[in-house]
Design a protein that fits this description.
Length: 551
């Protein structure tokens, strides 16, 4: 028995030996892995900095003079006045009076008014049905189909991974971008002096950015972009705000730092100067209205700060590897902090029960105020698709979409679209002393802004006045989001409407695109039903702007 116990003890000892031997090996493996990871990160940093050092050599010499092309202006359109359906004012006058004020009435007066209103409504409806029977449903001929903008390229990224330098301990500086707090590590060791703007002086100053403290600054900028899901334009504005705050508003040092952070984030830019002031010009996937631009190596570069209005600039043509042009698409929701505006109630012009109270996010509105109107594919009309394809902010839709879905539930698609159309139609008359009249008011951009301006969907729900473009863009959002139907924008000379692809045949004017039937829906034809074309637009050639498809 003792013999077996001794043998068992020996076996246990032998079996334990490999386990004990593996422990230091496991520890060594972790050490090796950490060493490998740190080495790889250092190689990423060394690779990017080596490329930047090579770039600096070209900055010393690669300067050429270019003449600025004059800004492209938004095309002027002929003025098309909104129209009101015949009989609509009489049909709705009583409840408009109720909505917008008036003396209290007795029960008898209210009953008589209700009876008269119903009679007028029935008479107007019967007359319109009679006229509709006399008119055929027009298949409107399409002169041109404007393709939807191509899907954006992946957002620009650095040439190689940007690694934090733990040995650096700069304090965090906070700054606001459209009311949204950002913070980056930046300190006095990030300051520098740009002695002049010759090629050598610019290259010498850029050499400062090879120091490790700028790795943390760049790392933090990219983290903020990711955290807030900033679009390219929002990220550019973030970098502009940061560099202006730390280096001085529009100083040459601020512009140099802006160019470094922008290019090392993966974007395509070039430095330029006029002998005194340093500028940054950016390559863009979109053509921007109202911005001076330069044609360099087959691409358009834009001057974004509006300081220089033309003439000639000396431009550094040095390139950085794998740089990407700016995209002006906003394909995903951005995470701006919320600053609620005052409440605004919007009520349908035909259904007083279809009424919703809205508070916009002022921070988003401020962002849109900076956004440059642009087009792509050398087609001016693509600009509207960019606005219509930008998703509405979740904070806003969370306020109105649940209530809208509840009121639309159980309705057929045509009925649901009709309710949304009437909600957007608003009024044609303008009382400037009382812009918040409970519905959208129509006004020409030039009379309000002094120039043609398109609205993102959220802006139409913030500003008291909008026009045909804004209403069609907003309605296309609501129909796609709430009813789940594809839409297109319909361009007449001087006028924009939209059309909806219903899952079944519906009466009214329509267009055919790619074998699919889209029924006209015009939120500027006040009091109209789905399928009705504004009479002044009848017989005019149209162009169709395709929007992002739901499926």
């Amino acid at each position: 028995m003792k013999k077996y116990i001794v043998i068992l003890q020996i076996l246990m000892l032998v079996l334990a030996l490999p386990v004990q031997a593996q422990k230091p090996q496991k520890k060594d493996f972790r050490k090796d892995f950490e060493a490998f990871k740190n080495k790889a990160k250092q190689e990423y940093t060394d690779f990017r900095k080596k490329a930047f050092a090579e770039y600096l050599q070209f900055v010393r010499e690669a300067w050429e003079e270019f003449g600025a092309e004059p800004p492209v202006q938004v095309p002027e359109e002929e003025k098309v006045e909104p129209m009101v359906v015949e009989g609509f004012e009489e049909e709705t006058a009583s409840w408009f009076s109720k909505l917008f004020g008036g003396k209290d009435k007795s029960d008898e007066e209210k009953a008589a008014e209700k009876k008269a209103k119903k009679a007028a409504k029935d008479a107007a409806k019967a007359e319109r049905k009679r006229k509709k029977r006399e008119q055929s449903n027009d298949n409107i001929q399409v002169q041109q189909v404007v393709e939807a903008p191509k899907a954006p390229l992946p957002q620009a990224k650095p040439l190689s991974e940007v690694v934090q330098q733990t040995a650096q301990a700069n304090p965090y500086m906070t700054f606001d971008v459209f009311g949204t707090q950002c913070r980056v590590r930046i300190g006095d060791n990030c300051r520098f002096r740009l002695a002049g703007i010759s090629g050598d002086q610019v290259a010498d100053a850029l050499g400062e950015f090879l120091k490790p403290q700028f790795d943390n600054l760049l790392y933090d900028c990219l983290q903020e972009r990711q955290k807030h899901n900033f679009s390219d334009w929002a990220y550019y504005q973030m970098l502009l705000t940061l560099t202006n705050k730390f280096y001085g508003n529009h100083s040459n040092e601020a512009t140099l730092a802006l160019g470094f952070l922008y290019s090392q984030s993966g974007y395509k830019m070039r430095y330029a100067h006029d002998g005194q002031t340093l500028y940054m010009i950016v390559a863009s996937q979109y053509n921007m209205f109202g911005k001076s631009y330069f044609y360099i190596d087959g691409e358009w570069y834009y001057l974004l700060d509006n300081i220089k209005d033309g003439s000639k600039l000396s431009i550094c043509t040095a390139k950085f590897p794998k740089e990407s042009p700016l995209s002006l698409q906003i394909s995903a929701l951005q995470n701006f902090s919320v600053l609620p505006t005052n409440e605004r109630t919007i009520t349908s012009i035909k259904n007083p029960d279809f009424s919703f109270t809205i508070r916009s996010n002022k921070n988003s509105i401020d962002f849109y105020n900076t956004y440059p109107c642009s087009y792509t594919e050398d087609n001016f009309m693509t600009r509207w698709a960019n606005y219509a394809n930008t998703p509405l902010e979740k904070w806003l839709t969370d306020q109105i979409y649940p209530g809208m879905r509840e009121k639309l539930s159980g309705l057929k698609p045509l009925e649901a679209v009709q309710q949304l159309d009437w909600w957007v139609q608003g009024k044609t008359d303008i009382d400037r002393k009382n812009p918040n009249q409970g519905c959208f008011l129509y006004a020409y951009d030039e009379s309000i802004w002094g120039y043609d301006r398109n609205f993102f969907g959220e802006e139409s729900m913030f500003y008291p006045y909008n026009d045909c473009e804004d209403r069609s863009i907003l309605l296309s959002h609501l129909v796609r989001d709430l009813v789940g139907l594809d839409c297109v924008l319909v361009y007449y000379p001087g006028h924009l409407a939209m059309a909806v692809n219903f899952p079944y045949d519906v009466p009214g004017d329509y267009i055919t695109v790619g074998g699919r039937k889209f029924t006209v829906c015009d939120p500027t034809y006040i009091g109209s039903d789905v399928g009705e074309t504004m009479p002044t637009m009848k017989g005019k050639g149209i162009k169709v702007i395709l929007l992002k498809r739901l499926s």
